[in-house]
Each structure stands twice: as C-alpha cells, then as structure tokens.
Amino acid sequence: MKYGIVLFPSKKLQDIANSYRKRYDPNYALIPPHLTLRTPFESSEEDIGKVVAHLRELSKELKPIRLKITKFSSFAPVNNVIYMKAEPTAELTELHEKMYSGVLEDKPEYAFVPHVTIAQNLSDDEHSDVLGTLKMRDATHEEIIDRFHLLYQLDNGSWTVYETFILGV
C-alpha cells in the first residue's frame, strides 16, 4: 500500500489554497491542501506497525513548528507547479529529515522545498498568466502546527489519514 507523511495547515490557509486549487489543481478532490514531509512510499500491512511506532517516537522528540508562508512561487521551468512557499525553518527542515530516518531510512528524491501546491499540470501560457497574477498578491501567513499525519492512498487515488501524531507529546 502507498503511504505519505504530511502537515495539514489551518482551515484558514486551506481555504485560501482551495480557492485556487478548485480551478487549477486536478488533485483537488484527492487530498486537502498540505505540506509534504515525506514523498509517497510503499509499505506492507506487517511493516506499517513499525513505521507508526517510529513516528510516535519522533513526535515525542519534536516540538510544534511555526509555518510561515511567504509568497507564491513555481517550480518552472522544471514543471508547471505553482505553490505557496513556506519558509524552510530549522524545525521544519529537521521534521522533514526525521521522516527519512530509522525504519523510514532513505534518500529524498528531491531537495526539500516546503510548500503547499495550489496549481499543477498547467499549460505554459496558463502557468505564466496565473503565476503573474498571484505574484501581485500578498501570501503572507503564519501559524503554529502541532501535528503531522501518516496518510494512505485508496484505490480511487484519494488519500486519507491513517494516524495523526501530536508533536511534543
């Protein structure tokens, strides 16, 4: 089964992201706005218990983190993804790195660029138009996040929470 690890921002930030995602993100109905801590990985039913135990231990060691959204940005020209950029704080980077340790030991596929995706699979022209418009808007937002979530993917491609982990508890 496919699993992933994410942070869900507050309803306020999710509402802002969804106002764009409804129109520009084909994955809008599959998963709420999120910040990916660990890209999707495969695990068996037998092994997921070890992953959960590991994540429980990590959550006790780590403190709640400050999520600071600073602007709208893009991964272009690599791909036409537009996102809300999160400041890569030491706490957020540490949380990401811990998701690739212990029983989850692996090398991340990409450099960690903390973000909340709001648009993807756009044509070059649409990407340019949407990004140009968004860059004129203020994206500043700050909040404290005190939990992360282990998700699993259903047969229809949507993601649902397997377990939630409170930071610092």
From TrEMBL:
Q: Active site annotated at which positions?
A: 34, 115
For this protein, what is the EC number?
3.1.-.-
Task: Write down the InterPro entries for this protein, in alphabetical order.
Answer: 2H_phosphoesterase_YjcG-like, Cyclic_Pdiesterase, YjcG
Signal sequence span per UniProt? none
- Keyword entries, A-Z: Hydrolase
Motif segment (HXTX 2):
115-118
Q: Name one GO molecular function term.
A: hydrolase activity, acting on ester bonds
Q: Which Pfam families match?
A: 2_5_RNA_ligase2
Q: Where is this motif: HXTX 1?
A: 34-37
Matching HAMAP family: 2H_phosphoesterase_YjcG (MF_01444)
Protein name as it appears in the record: Putative phosphoesterase BSONL12_04269
